């Protein structure tokens, strides 16, 4: 490894993105790749420790290995641990053959020289939705293909809205949503809950409103950005949202909604199973943009990437594994297991045909945007940190939305 790559890896280790919805910490299999030991064994690292050897996911990996004529050795890590392990393995020239990693981290690993491009491995990404694929692009190159996506939308309690006389079909923009919250409050119920905590989760939840106003992460203190933060700030002042949002994670925010008292909750596809257990009739509404239409929400979900190998002859078989994992049939099965929306239109349509409740989620994913898109790459973590600090300052009342975002812009330069 040359010195320049080593320096990039060291820098990358300091800019790892803290993701909004990580998996629980656990590991299965070996703790290091061993691809050099046996040319008939290919290593796969993934962030799905919740799936053991008997799971459909593990069986798919074995099946793809069998089709490629090799044995797959799988290791599962917690999301944040996986990124650190990938950086360390690259430093030691001991990377796995296939690395499945959270999408905001792709640009960090790519800029550190850890990943190959899809051109290098001849990986076909033509069927992936461009807005989802963009999360894995930096410097005009693509570093992997999405295996699935999740994003944010508004869950709503049908009973609460009915009691308040709110027709959900009337909610088309911010004024109509705020009017609905006002009716709910006057009816004696609670309006909306979300996560505004001072971490990546807070930025993740704020972005649909920020982007829905037409703001850009390169200029967070624009009038559009201020209008989004003012919307949230005004909701707290009017009592439409609780002060608890300042400390809410996406999990605790969901728990508030699950109490049955709230009309709306901003949350993701990962809560679908819990929604069905909530004990009340619910629906899902894509987050409205400021004036009309669906706001762009940030995409969650992973990319299938191929780390750089000293033996480039391995890429041909690795490409077969990637193609198998991301084929239409396997995407459908995998994304159903992970509660993800598929990254291709063909499989999305198949998902909706099988479960009509996924329709608003597909709509939200089609309008979604990668946090590192627009070639932000490793600039995103610094911008995000200043953004969540601004949200905290404005919602706590320590600064006006204008001053909070002005400070954020200066700090992010």
Structure description:
This protein is of the alpha/beta class and 413 residues long. It contains 18 helices and eleven strands. It has helices at residues 3-13, 56-68, 79-91, 103-111, 118-121, 130-133, 158-164, 174-186, 200-212, 223-237, 250-258, 272-276, 315-325, 328-338, 345-354, 359-366, 380-396, 401-412; strands at residues 41-46, 71-76, 98-102, 137-138, 141-142, 145-146, 152-157, 190-193, 262-268, 282-285, 302-305. The chain is globular, with a radius of gyration of 22 Å. The model is unreliable at 1-7 and 13-38 (pLDDT under 50).
What's the total count of β strands? Answer: 11
Q: What is the structural class?
A: alpha/beta
SS summary, helix count: 18
Fraction in beta strands: 5-15%
Mean pLDDT: 90
Low-confidence stretches: 1-7, 13-38
**What percent of the residues sit in helical stretches (DSSP H or I)?**
40-55%
Shape: globular
Order of helices and strands: HEHEHEHHHEEEEHHEHHHEHEEHHHHHH
How much is the radius of gyration in Å?
Answer: 22 Å
Strand order of the largest sheet: 2-1-3-11-6
Major sheet description? 5 strands, mixed
Distance between the termini: 32 Å
Name some characteristics of this structure.
single chain; 413 residues; alpha/beta; five-stranded mixed β-sheet; four-stranded mixed β-sheet; 45% helix; disordered N terminus
């Amino acid at each position: 490894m040359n010195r320049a790559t080593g320096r990039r890896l060291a820098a990358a280790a300091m800019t790892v993105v803290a993701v909004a919805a990580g998996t629980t910490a656990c590991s299965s299999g070996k703790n290091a790749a061993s691809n050099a030991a046996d040319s008939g064994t290919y290593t796969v690292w993934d962030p799905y420790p919740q799936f053991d050897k008997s799971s459909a996911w593990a069986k798919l990996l074995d099946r793809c290995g069998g089709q490629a004529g090799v044995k797959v050795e799988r290791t599962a890590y917690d999301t944040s641990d996986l990124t650190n392990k990938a950086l360390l393995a690259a430093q030691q020239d001991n990377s796995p053959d296939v690395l499945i990693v959270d999408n905001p981290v792709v640009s960090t690993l790519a800029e550190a020289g850890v990943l190959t491009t899809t051109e290098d491995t001849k990986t076909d990404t033509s069927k992936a939705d461009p807005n989802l694929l963009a999360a894995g692009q930096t410097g005009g190159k693509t570093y992997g293909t999405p295996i699935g996506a999740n994003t944010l939308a508004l869950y709503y309690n049908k009973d609460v809205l009915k009691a308040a006389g709110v027709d959900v079909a009337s909610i088309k923009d911010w004024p109509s949503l705020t009017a609905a919250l006002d009716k709910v409050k006057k009816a004696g119920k609670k309006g909306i809950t979300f996560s505004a905590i001072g971490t990546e989760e807070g930025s993740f939840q704020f972005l649909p409103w920020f982007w829905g106003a037409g703001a850009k992460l390169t200029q967070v203190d624009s009038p559009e950005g201020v209008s989004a933060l003012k919307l949230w700030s005004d909701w707290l002042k009017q009592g439409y949202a609780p002060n608890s949002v300042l400390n809410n994670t996406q999990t605790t925010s969901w728990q508030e909604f699950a109490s049955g008292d709230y009309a709306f909750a901003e949350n993701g596809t990962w809560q679908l199973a819990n929604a069905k257990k909530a004990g009340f009739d619910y629906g899902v509404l894509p987050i409205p943009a400021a004036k009309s239409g669906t706001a762009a929400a940030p995409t969650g979900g992973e990319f299938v990437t191929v780390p750089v190998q000293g033996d480039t002859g391995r890429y041909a078989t690795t490409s077969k594994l990637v193609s198998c994992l991301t084929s239409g049939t396997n995407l459908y099965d995998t994304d159903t297991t992970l509660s993800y929306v598929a990254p291709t239109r063909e499989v999305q349509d198949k998902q909706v045909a099988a479960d009509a409740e996924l329709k608003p989620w597909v709509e939200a994913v089609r309008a979604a945007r990668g946090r590192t898109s627009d070639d932000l790459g490793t600039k995103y973590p610094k911008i995000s940190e200043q953004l969540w600090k601004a949200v905290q300052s404005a919602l706590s009342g320590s600064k006006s939305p204008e001053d909070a975002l002005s400070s954020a812009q200066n700090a992010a330069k």
